[in-house]
Amino acid sequence: MALVDSILNLVNKQPKDPDAPKAPVGSRSEREAKIKDKAGMVISVFALLLAVNSWYGGKLSSTVLNNTLGANNKWAQYQAKNGRGVSYEIAAKTTADPKLKAEFMAEKERMDSDKKEIMAEAREMERVREEAKKGSPWIGYASTAYQLAIVVLSASILAVSMAMFWSSFAVAGIGLVLSLNGLFLWRSEEHTSELQSQSTISYAV
């Protein structure tokens, strides 16, 4: 937040003196004073948006990491269950004892049931991970936009330009739209369908 602190110092570096003579109407000093009066609150809002956006971006990164590890563990369990199921099936086919054969087949069915449950959990973790990965770039773009908005705002103070001041709102607005897209994933339904198709192809065997 060094950038925010620098701009706040810039805004407050010349406190108002009630006894000082007023600048002529429309002069540079008057316009600079107007911008500084407004910039203090605006910079706080932009900084808040940047902080919240950065927090959510970190949350998405954690979701990607945790669900990647979780899905890998689930698929490892799936493979272990699959191996045990094959072993029980072979044992059932090779034994001549009907009682043992029934027990082996019962265990194989239990392994198959466990595999279905584990597969569902793993696919759900992958779905959540992919959704987080899809939203993460938009959050990154939004952070860049908020930082750029702060830069434009600081430049408006130095240049005493109301046009640049209001331009900073436009840039921050773009950042807000990017944040909302990363949060709600307006194309998530289409993306989810693609993921389901890929999962069906990948695990059909």
Description:
87% of the residues lie in helices and 0% in strands. It has helices at 2-12, 28-94, 98-159, 162-184, 188-202. It has 205 residues and is mainly α. Helix 1 packs parallel to helix 3.
Beta strand %: under 5%
Query: Which stretches of 5+ consecutive residues score pLDDT under 50?
Result: 199-205
What's the overall average pLDDT, rounded? 81
**Spatial extent as radius of gyration:** 30 Å
Task: Tally the beta strands.
Answer: 0
Secondary-structure content class: mainly alpha
**Helix run count:** 5
Structure keywords:
about 200 residues, rod-shaped, disordered C terminus
Give a brief description.
This protein is mainly α and 205 residues long. The chain has five helices and no strands.
Strand and helix layout:
Blueprint: H1 2-12, H2 28-94, H3 98-159, H4 162-184, H5 188-202
